Every structure is written in structure tokens, then in C-alpha cells.
TrEMBL record:
It holds the Pfam family Sigma70_r2. InterPro entries: RNA_pol_sigma-70-like (IPR039425), RNA_pol_sigma-70_dom (IPR014284), RNA_pol_sigma70_r2 (IPR007627), RNA_pol_sigma70_r4_t2 (IPR013249), RNA_pol_sigma_r2 (IPR013325), RNA_pol_sigma_r3/r4-like (IPR013324), WH-like_DNA-bd_sf (IPR036388). The keyword Transcription regulation applies. It comes from Pseudoxanthomonas japonensis. This is RNA polymerase subunit sigma-24. Gene3D superfamilies: 1.10.1740.10, Winged helix-like DNA-binding domain superfamily/Winged helix DNA-binding domain (1.10.10.10). Keywords: Sigma factor, Transcription, Transcription regulation. The lineage of its organism: Bacteria, Pseudomonadati, Pseudomonadota, Gammaproteobacteria, Lysobacterales. Belongs to the sigma-70 factor family. ECF subfamily. Residues 29-96 form the RNA polymerase sigma-70 region domain.
Length: 187
């Protein structure tokens, strides 16, 4: 399992108290992870209402499966995996993945690497991401922000690594077009 750049530490004692049934400890965990789970779900689903549903489903699973947590991996990594699975499950249920993965290749400029993330205004970038098909947006987010490999993304999305690579390439080209980013001239 890859490690997110947004790792969040949680004291082992807090997890132990929540596992033993302490309601206040679970509420503290909820408050600590509510925003990161919602943000992750929003980036994958592209819709605030869907992200709220994913947050709710993730926290219910957390509550029901907290006794199953093994401390041999970081807590946020374990919870993040639940959130990613819930978000992708929601997308699969809506059949968005199948209907939105086709992109007209003639409309896309040639891919020459990663988009210059730091150069784009955050609001403009969010609008551009929202304009992408959910499968493409999910792959972009999982790869660039969460640090998943193509093999891991393929496994999560029940696809092949080639699917992940092609969605990343298409998404990068489409983002560049949506953000109207010109390619640098190589001397």
C-alpha cells in the first residue's frame, strides 16, 4: 500500500480507546479524519454530495471494522484505503467509469509530461478537474496526490495498469487544454 503525502498521525492510545468502545475516542478520530476523508472523496467523486456520502459510508465502516485494524500499518493509510474503496465503489455503482472513459483523442494535444500543478490557481484547477470524466479524475488524483502506482490504481479500479496509464496521459493532456497551459519551448 502506498503512503499518502497527507499522512496524519493518530496516537495509538486513542485508537485503542476507540477499539474498546469509548465513544469520545471514536468522535475524536472522526473529527480528526473528517476533512481529509471528505477531501479525498471529493477529489475522486467530483461532487460534494457524493463526497459526503462517501465520508458517511467510510466512517460507518471504520466504526464497524475498527476492531479489525492491525497496528502494523499507519492508521491513516488503513482508513484512506477504506475511503478510496468507498469512493470507487460509488462510482462503479453509478456506472460512470464505463460510460466516461472514452475521450475523443482528436480533441487532445500531445502529452509531454506532468502539468505544472504549482502554476495553476487552485480554483481554476478544481474547475478543470471537475470537467474531467470521473475515471480520469480519479486516476489523476490517486497517482499524483495520493502516490498510488499504476498497478495499485488498476487493482482498485478493477482495470489494467494500461488503463491507469492511458487515463493519466489523457487526463494530463485534457487538463493542459482546459487550463490553457502552453508547452514550454525546449532549446
Amino acid at each position: 500500500m502506498s503512503r499518502s503525502q497527507f499522512a496524519i498521525d493518530v496516537p495509538d492510545s486513542l485508537v485503542a480507546r476507540a477499539r474498546s468502545g469509548c465513544r469520545e475516542a471514536f468522535e475524536q478520530i472522526y473529527r480528526r479524519f473528517e476533512r481529509p476523508v471528505f477531501t479525498l472523496a471529493l477529489r475522486i467523486c467530483g461532487d460534494r454530495e457524493e463526497a459526503g456520502d462517501v465520508l458517511q459510508d467510510t466512517m460507518l465502516k471504520l466504526f464497524n471494522h475498527l476492531p479489525d485494524y492491525r497496528a502494523d500499518c499507519p492508521f491513516w493509510g488503513w482508513l484512506r484505503q477504506i475511503a478510496v474503496n468507498e469512493a470507487l465503489l460509488r462510482l462503479r455503482r453509478q456506472r460512470r467509469l464505463v460510460s466516461e472513459i472514452t475521450v475523443d483523442e482528436d480533441d487532445l494535444p500531445e502529452d509531454r509530461g506532468l502539468p505544472p500543478w504549482a502554476a495553476a490557481d487552485a480554483a481554476l484547477l478544481q474547475r478543470a478537474l471537475d470537467g474531467l470524466p470521473s475515471a480520469t479524475r480519479s486516476v489523476l488524483w490517486l497517482y499524483h496526490a495520493e502516490g498510488y502506482t499504476h498497478d495499485e490504481i488498476a487493482a482498485l479500479m478493477h482495470r489494467t495498469p494500461s488503463f491507469s496509464k492511458s487515463q493519466l496521459s489523457r487526463g494530463t493532456r485534457r487538463l493542459r487544454a482546459l487550463l490553457q497551459i502552453e508547452e514550454p519551448i525546449h532549446a
